[in-house]
Amino acid sequence: MIRAIITTNGFYSFTIFTYHQLQWSAGLWGGYPQIGFNAGDQVNYFTLEKSFSPDVVEVVNDSNIGVPGQFVFHTTGNISDVECNSVEGLQSMPFRGSMYGGYEFRLSGICFNQSDYTVEIDGQQIVNCQIAPSYISCMMPMTYGGRLKIRLYSERRPIGETDFLAIEPEHNAHLILHNYHELDDSVQQTDNDQFVLQFQSNAITNNYLFHVVVYYYGAQMWLNNGTIHNRTHSRIDLGLGPRNLSLLQNLTIRYESIFSIIDQPVDRTHLLTIAFEVVRPSSRIVWAAVPLILLRIIVVAAVTFESYCPLWHAFEPNPQIYINQIPPCPCRVLTTWSENQLGFTADGACDGRYPLGKNCMFHQGASGCYRRKSNTGNAGAQCCYNSQGAWISNWENGAGTLDAYSPDGSLLSLGHIFSDVIPYFSCCKSILSPSKERCKQYMNKRPPGRCENLLPLPAGGNGDPHFTTLNGGSYTFNGYGEYTLIKSTVAQFEVQVRLAPVNANSP
After folding, report:
1. Which part of the chain is the VWFD domain (predicted)?
2. CB 243 within 8 A of CB 251
């Protein structure tokens, strides 16, 4: 088997060649093959030593990176040698990255032959960019999540634009916090004045120092038309310096250290992402460029928390418009709880691959949930299942709730926060007005949708060979011998296959 992968880190290109279980040395023409790579320009090429010899099959034991059978080549051209002759085709490298910024990005693809350029991202001007003949280098600022426009101007004239996908990195504060599940994506009230982080003592908190910062987003939404307005964002350094969190044990963060409580409109929502930037203690401390560990908390005024539910319910349309958009849930899934099943992706807040414990807190009774966004709108399905893999339709038993605005993987969706998350907490987690009827208001507007007995994705094998599993997974396996392809655990059913090399002269 020979496999080639072309990849990039956003700035440089690499080609990875993997050689495994080579079964031939001489070709049909009687000669021995050449192994390596060729750029096609008669200048840049590389040939492995055992090429053109019977020993070529032993390349599976060789490497230039210490991994038998694997070779990696840096295949990026010298950017200074590229002739600049284009005025169209502006592009960004990388084309996606963290919405919290703090890293370099480059604009290229056109000629930069002026001295006066202005770069804007999502309407905000970027300063201190470096201009070279074939690219412009800037630092990515803090942005809102989603697909953003990068626009380039020269002397106030638009030169070009390109898209950039700003993503919210995965929340992973469970690695260091005891009370992660009580805080992450929870809705807190400003009347509480503060929240407390309780740190674990483990290999991470003991062996690393952390710099703690808060990425703040504030916004409001008009419930009558769903318009989000008065958006602001900022990065707040808590001034703690590098700290050992296991020795710190607890950290109390007051809201007033991040935003003003007194002067804010009562309907304003505050999104706080607490980022723990990690460094390894050494004689020279180097800050990590991107936050490693993240936790997000949603903060609203107490009056908003209590009054949001009835107001939201009054303006919410008939949920049938969302049900018509979202895909039907599978009526049954495999209880192996894989990352993907039948086109649906595991829900991080109720992932069946992890012990229940505090997992599935918002869908108690469920063993796992899956999500999938509509192909025609913003809505999304959330499908929850019991321990036997059967779809749950009753919210009191842990059923899923459709989303008017799907969280869409790692993208931060303010629409999801205002339309799905805050209403849930206001309706179902109210302290002053706790009642099943109040929570039912939310569930009536966010029903679980419907389920269908979806057919498994086509499964089988082909080629040398490539396999597709019943739950949509795919892989390549080149072992010789007889193997079990599929076997039932509830019936007398088993399919075995025999894998063997095919003669090149076979029909």
Report:
1. 457-507
2. no
Name the E strands within 127-267.
130-131, 135-139, 146-154, 157-167, 186-189, 194-198, 209-222, 227-237, 250-254
Domain termination site, one of 119, 145, 167: 167
Q: Are 478 and 1 in contact (CB under 8 A)?
A: yes
Whole-model pTM: value is 0.68
The residues near 322 (Cβ < 8 Å, ≥ 6 apart) are 377, 379, 402, 403, 404
- In this predicted structure, the answer to whether residue 31 has a pLDDT above a threshold of 70 is no
Helix axes 302-315, 436-445, angle to 10 degrees: 50
Please identify which residue in the block is written with the tokens 């019991």: 386
Q: How far apart are CA 116 and CA 439, in angstroms?
A: 58
Q: Is 342 exposed, middle or buried (0-12, 13-18, 19+ CB in 10 A)?
A: buried
Helices (H), 302-445: 302-315, 320-323, 414-416, 422-428, 436-445
Closest by CA to 382, choosing from 404, 365, 410, 357, is: 404
Q: Are the C-beta atoms of 332 and 389 separated by less than 8 Å?
A: yes
Closest CA to 237 of 255, 203, 213, 202: 213
Same domain, 145 and 188: no
Residue 51: pLDDT above 90?
no
pLDDT band at 173 (very low <50, low <70, confident <90, very high): confident
Which one, of 376, 369, 361, 371, lies nearest residue 416 by Cα? 371
Domain identity same for 289 and 186: yes
End-to-end CA distance of the chain: 20
Give the DSSP H/E element, type plus range, for residue 181.
helix 180-183
Q: How far is residue 349's CA from residue 341's CA, in Å, rounded to a whole number?
A: 17
Alpha carbon of residue 482 to chain centroid: 38
Query: How many domains does the structure of the chain reveal?
Result: 5
Specify if 285 maps to a domain.
yes
Closest CA to 371 of 346, 337, 353, 401: 346
215 and 273 in contact (C-beta within 8 Å)?
yes
Which residues, 6+ apart, have CB-to-CB distance to 121 below 8 Å? 140, 141, 143, 148, 149, 150, 151, 164
Here the tokens at position 180 are 């992660």
Render pLDDT for 366-415 as a digit per residue (tens, 0 to 9): 999 999 999 888 899 999 999 999 999 999 999 999 999 888 654 557 88
Question: Residue 477 is part of which domain span?
Answer: 460-499
Residue type present at position 7: T
| Res 85: pLDDT | 46
Question: Pseudo-torsion of CA 486, 472, 355, 452, nearest 10°?
Answer: -100
Phi and psi at 62, nearest 5°, equal: -100, 165
